[in-house]
Amino acid sequence: MFTLAAGIWSAWGAAGGAAILLAGVSGALVFLRRTRQRRQTRETCPKCLAVGTLSAVMDGASPGLRVIHCRNFLTEVAGDAGEECGFEFLEHYRNLPKLSFTTLGAPGSGKTFWALQLYSHLIQGRYPGNVTFTRIEGPGAERFDQMVDFALNNRIAPSATQVSALPDPIVFAFQNHNRAARLRQCLVNLFDFPGEVTVRHTHSSTLRRRQLQADGYVFFLDPTLPAQLQGDALAKFVENVAALRQIPVGRQLDVPLAICLTKLDLLAAPHRGSSDGWVDRFYDRLRTIDPSGESLAPEVIDRRSELIREILPRLFPGWDMLRQAEGFFGPRWKLFPLTPVGLNDATSANAGSLVERMIEPYGICEPLLWMLDQNGAAVLPQGPTFRG
Predict the structure, then answer these.
(1) Which CATH number fits domain 96-377: 2.60.120.40, 3.60.15.10, 3.40.50.300, 1.20.1050.10?
(2) pLDDT along the chain (388 residues), means of 10
(3) 177 vs 130: CA distance, rounded Å
């Protein structure tokens, strides 16, 4: 009996020791993985995504402040020395996770006007109280400061983005006050890419590769532009993302896509004469669902998305714009109605000018906040969500 009991205790002891050893090994592996993740986060450039090219320098304008400078060289073709990335930010933000969001769409689809209105909203604090956005100084912020002054103060519409090199992002330090959120803090980097990159660059282009290496995409559909141009651009985008990220055929991408129907104020001019009056009904239903364009309630976002889905066949007859995106992004895509100007009607006389328009932007912040929520920020109120 004593021998049997001793054997049982010995077996229990061995099992307990093995369990302790296994727990220790698992804990060590988790620690090592997190250590590697923190090191990679610390060494990754927010602009070009190079790893190990950051170095600390002293800020000549502000003695005592350490600035992180990226010395990576960007090349467009093999053998080309290229130019230095040169992106700089305060060392204070170096350890924060870095999320990149990029704009896509045909030239003239409204990407830049939306981005500058978003920039204006964030620096003015026009966002929900459960989060905070802090503007980070840099070339991107300086450029957008000038555009905000021209467009919103002097009423000069932004010109098409002309960028031959990798654009400087506008950068905000994001803080979430929801302690239960997986993502509490990060650097938000928004890249405004020229439309030419979307429609003409191949996946081997430096600009195209960086445009597609993002944590969320904002694709613009313009109701005033040809359907084929935009349908082909959306299909090409899906193909390029799959190739760049090596996503097997039939598998979905685990990155959010916000498809924005912009220039809603310009629907009236070409379509208001339709016999059944669908444009007026669309405006009425949109205002009924969300008169401000600022609601983050999941059911409101879903209803607005479904409303846009209903009118797309009228805007782009014969084109199923969403088929490939829906299959590739699965549940992680959504349609967003927005206009940087407002839902007030534009006549043919003032459609191209901001001077005579009342600027009341609609739906500006929602795409960004939704993408942050999709990346673990838990920004949106709890509630059911449905497909795009």
Answers:
(1) 3.40.50.300
(2) 56 59 52 56 89 82 78 65 83 92 94 92 92 93 86 63 78 92 94 92 85 96 92 92 89 94 78 67 92 92 95 89 85 92 59 62 94 93 47
(3) 5
